[in-house]
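Any chance you could type out some protein's one-letter sequence along with its backbone structure tokens so I can compare the two?
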Amino acid sequence: VYLQCGHTVNLPENIIRCEQSNCKFSFFHPARCKPPACLRTCWQYLRYPEQYSPNIDGYCPSCSREALEFVSVTGSSY
């Protein structure tokens, strides 16, 4: 979320590896752990910080472009 304009933009995915053995996405998740037991005992989705939505103190790329165009056309600040 861009805090200055409130817009959201899908950013390139940063892969943060889960290191817990009870996370099915982890390199440490045992190969022998399979459904249905795995569904009861292991995380089936990524949690924080593996899944996160950063708050960026600024304008989204679209609003930043509009501000630059406005300044170049009018010569005044946005």
About this structure: The chain has a mean pLDDT of 82. The chain is about 25% helix and 0% strand. The radius of gyration is 21 Å.
